[in-house]
Amino acid sequence: MQQASRKTRRQAEDQQADEALADYGMDAAYSEGMEDVFGSLNNLKQDIERMKFPMGTQDNPARTCNDLHLSQPDFPDGEYWIDPNQGCIGDAINVFCNFTAGGETCIFPDKKSSG
To answer: Which residues, including other chains, have CB under 8 Å from residue 105's CB and lie 6 or more apart?
Structure first.
């Protein structure tokens, strides 16, 4: 019952907002444009949160193991993904993070290199 009244209240608020826009000569196209703006702002907010609190996964790598340790102090030592240049996640690398040593980043040797 309470949800029904909330929906009704929202519908009334939406109608009032539409009427207010009409009073100022702004139509539904303006309203849709604002929805796009708010959608973009929400996406930016999510991207910033992902950078502030990385998970060390391939699709959400940290910049360094130390950064991962600072944002996720309960994570155990282990293999995680980092992206030191914070560019495209496509160039993130798999490393071993030694959190017991304060967040050291250990890079696995490249088997293709001869040296």
So the answer is: 64, 65, 66, 82, 95, 96, 97, 98
Per-residue pLDDT averaged across 77-95, rounded?
91
Using CA atoms, how far residue 43 sits from 2, 65, 109, in Å, is 31, 25, 37
Residue type, 108: F
- Flag whether the pTM goes above 0.70: no
**Cα separations (Å) of 60 from 11, 67, 74, 109?**
38, 13, 17, 23
Q: Kindly list the distances between the CA atom of residue 54 and the CA atoms of 6, 17, 27, 74, 112, in Å, as whole numbers in the listed order.
A: 36, 38, 41, 13, 30
Tens-digit pLDDT profile for residues 19-56: 665 666 555 566 677 888 888 888 888 877 777 788 99
- Tokens 């608020």 identify what position? 13
**How many angstroms separate the Cα of 9 from the Cα of each of 14, 21, 34, 74?**
9, 18, 21, 43
Residue 92 has pLDDT above 90, yes or no: yes
